[in-house]
Amino acid sequence: MLLILGPIWSILEAKACAKPHKTIESLKRALIKACNEITLEQLASIIDNFPKRLKACVEAKGRHFE
């Protein structure tokens, strides 16, 4: 499941952590906003790339891969 979530977390991190947050609530709001801003095109691209990422994972025998 992390194969699908990794790219999504990357998007969320880039958007929500673009600036430092002083409180957990501020970070939560930024994550919710970033989540709402993910486009269908971004999700489609992540899903389309899943077979390639799965193959890389199998070839890496479950270890880290890029």
Account of the protein in words:
- The chain has 66 residues and is mainly α.
- The protein has one domain (2-58).
- Helix content is 74%, strand content 0%.
- It has three helices and no strands.
- The chain has helices at residues 2-16, 24-37, 40-59.
- α1 (2-16) packs across α2 (24-37) and α1 crosses α3.
- The mean pLDDT is 90.
Quick structural gist:
The protein has 3 helices and no strands.
Helices and strands in order, then pairings?
Layout: H1 2-16, H2 24-37, H3 40-59
Helix pairs in contact: 1-2, 1-3
The span between the termini is 16 Å
**Biggest sheet descriptor:** none
Number of helical stretches of at least 4 residues: 3
Q: Proportion of β residues?
A: under 5%
Tally of individual domains? 1
State the main characteristics:
3 helices, mainly alpha, 66 residues, single chain
